[in-house]
Amino acid sequence: MRTRVKICGLTRAEDVATAVSCGVDAVGLVFYPSSPRAVTPAQAAALIHTVPPFVTVVGLFVDAEPVWVRTVLAQVPLGALQFHGHEPPDYCESFARPWIKAIAVRHTTAFDEVINRYAAAAGLLLDTYDPTLPGGTGRSFDWHLIPPAVANRCILAGGLTPDNVARAIQQVKPYAVDVSGGVESARGVKDCSKIAAFMQGVHDGDQFC
Ligand SMILES: O=C(O)c1ccccc1NCC(=O)[C@H](O)[C@H](O)COP(=O)(O)O
């Protein structure tokens, strides 16, 4: 099965168009106001206007008040929600949308507990732990920390680039990969040649799986 791809932190219509034309499976929009990649609901609605069916639009939140998530949902037709904070499962479940829980991986991560706790999630996104940032770190983590039982159903994130994504896929064999900083020329500004190179890297990684 080919590895699915999500590009996160899109802020410009031309980057959404490039991502779609390069064959991504999902595009991510950040609704965390502190992020340099944050978009407003009005910006988001305009950005995804031309996203075709079968490309999932994912909205990213960090410990948001439920009213903020509902405000976004009322204006933006999100296909899935991605939670990057300390959101408990009942909170994640309360918006009646498929949801992804981001897990900041470190040596002490108890994967059994995480899997049980977030059993209702559509997916677990494994990202780099950083005590000062809830995500979008641009740094990778030690993929050996991922147990085999989790690897093939996870969304692998954190510091993926056109140069390392093939190796990541060969080593981890994730369900999907998620990238933001690795395909940017500046925060929130994607680079079309990096997106194309990333997709080629995914394809190369898949050849060996
Ligand atoms: O992008 C942000 O600024 C951000 C802020 C707060 C929480 C999450 C954020 N981004 C998440 C992502 O873009 C990705 O899902 C993931 O963290 C990988 O990012 P990167 O390491 O830059 O590829």
From TrEMBL:
Pfam families per record: PRAI (PF00697)
Residues covered by the N-(5'phosphoribosyl) anthranilate isomerase (PRAI) domain: 5-200
Sections of the chain in a coiled coil: none
Catalyzed reaction equations: N-(5-phospho-beta-D-ribosyl)anthranilate = 1-(2-carboxyphenylamino)-1-deoxy-D-ribulose 5-phosphate
Main EC class the enzyme belongs to: isomerase
Keywords: Amino-acid biosynthesis, Aromatic amino acid biosynthesis, Isomerase, Tryptophan biosynthesis
Protein name (record): N-(5'-phosphoribosyl)anthranilate isomerase
Organism listed in the record: Thiospirillum jenense
Highest classification ranks of the organism: Bacteria, Pseudomonadati, Pseudomonadota, Gammaproteobacteria, Chromatiales
Gene: trpF
